Amino acid sequence: MTVVDDHLLARKVLPGGAGRTGLFVGGRVPPAAVRGVGCRLLDETGRWIIDAHNNFTVLIHGHGYAPAVNAVVSLAESGSFCFGVPHTTEYQLAAMIADRIESVEQVRFTNSGTEAVQTAMRLARASTGRSTIVGVGGAYHGSGDAALAISGGYQKAGIPAEVSALSRPVPFNDVDALEAAAAEAGDDLAMIIVDLMANYTGLRQLSDEYLRAARRLCDTTGAMLAFDEVVSLRHHVGGLQAAVSVRPDLTTMGKIIGGGLPVGAIGGNTRAMALLDPTRPGAIYSSGTFTGNPLTMAAGLATLEGLDSAAIERINSLGARLRESLGARLPEGWGVRGYGSLARVLRADDSAAPSAFFWKALDHGLLVTPAALVVISTAMDDGVIDEIVEKLVAAAREVTETEQSIS
Q1: What distance in Å separates the CA atoms of residue 120 and residue 374, rounded to the nearest whole number?
Q2: CA distance 180 to 190
Q3: CA–CA–CA angle 307, 263, 79 (5° rounding)
Q4: CB-based contacts of 376: which residues, under 8 Å, 6+ apart?
Q5: Which of 33, 35, 38, 365 could cysteine-pair with 379, CB 3.0–4.6 Å?
Q6: CATH fold label, 31-60+309-406
Q7: Strands (E), 105-151
Q8: Is 270 exposed, middle or buried (0-12, 13-18, 19+ CB in 10 A)?
């Protein structure tokens, strides 16, 4: 089939022509991928481009990471796709995660970060006997109804008002608003959930004051505090929580812990995780046909084994290099913010980069996320970072020139 035929088929069998809302940028989707090697991707037009998207931060080692590939192939060849009984790889990955993250003693795997957050919310509600969830407005915690009600905006479409009423978004870093929301929830507060540095709130870090207030409110009321580290786990061996003074009851994870295969997880201390134990009275139901499957677990093990403190320090250093160089060269009206191995291109007034920026960057052979997030992998080096900076600067200049010519 030709590229045109493929696109016609896609529009016929997939709503809008793509399988994920997140792939649409300015009402259209980019060319399909054919294969990936390291930090580069071959698309259906026959062009190799730098992949600084990495499937929304999943591919921390880039494409075709040999240890993960070899681990998956070995298990697949032995017939170990999935079973109706446990597999030792699940125990091993859970133990590795618990060893890395100070606040985690036990782990329950899911198929996605969305499922991990949904499970955490249900666990908190069952453990406390309450219903209300408080979170930072605008932060993305997956596509579950309660989580999208916190994210806000157009994402509330299709969510019953009764569900939205139990999800209370509060402004970023606003301690007074957080305290007011907790007071309003009163005896019904089940959980406060935060992303320590959410992409959709502009990659700004929550303050220690805010986190300490959240911890205090949970301790005072008996609610549970959850950190969403689905993205931020990449920043330190122990997650971004290792860099702050507060520890959560629960941590939700995903992305890098599956090595490129579908995954999510919820972790916490034994007290917080108690009602995930099916032998306990009042336990919640948490299961899935493919949760903890051997292929994902093996890929995750290989990925985390290759993501030691030295590897993290190297990509974080590349991130600092990118942000410094880019910040000095972006045209007037543009800026960059980030931490560790992530950088987000923004307008100087903190508004999001327009969708035109995504397409201009792609024209120059660089794939970033629709939100103009630049994701660094261990497959990159100084030379690739320099290439990325050149392409980002060119894209920003061209968007600016186009806007000026229209005005």
Answers
A1: 29
A2: 15
A3: 95
A4: 52, 315, 318, 319, 322, 341, 342, 343, 385
A5: 38
A6: Aspartate Aminotransferase, domain 1 (3.90.1150)
A7: 106-110, 132-136
A8: exposed
pLDDT at 155 over 80: no
Long-range CB contacts (within 8 A, 24+) of 317-320: 318/376, 318/380, 318/381, 318/382, 318/385, 319/343, 319/376
pLDDT tens-place string over residues 23-80: 999 999 999 999 999 999 999 999 999 999 999 999 999 999 999 999 999 999 999 9
Which strands form 264-268's sheet, in the order they lie side by side? 106-110, 264-268, 250-254, 224-228, 189-194, 132-136, 167-170
Comparing CA positions, the residue from 326, 352, 376 lying closest to residue 57 is 376
Domain with CATH 3.90.1150.10 in the chain: 31-60+309-406
Tokens encoding 28: 């259209």
Tell whether pTM > 0.90: yes
Q: Does the structural domain 66-305 have CATH classification 3.30.1840.10?
A: no
Q: How many contiguous H segments (helices) and E segments (strands) does the chain have? A: 13, 14
Q: Where in the chain is the domain with CATH 3.40.640.10?
A: 66-305
Q: Which residue has the tokens 């397409």?
A: 359
Q: How confident is the model at residue 154 (pLDDT cuts 50, 70, 90)?
A: low
Least Cα distance to 260 among 343, 344, 379, 371 occurs for: 379
Distances in whole angstroms, Cα of residue 108 to Cα of each of 247, 288, 375: 19, 11, 27
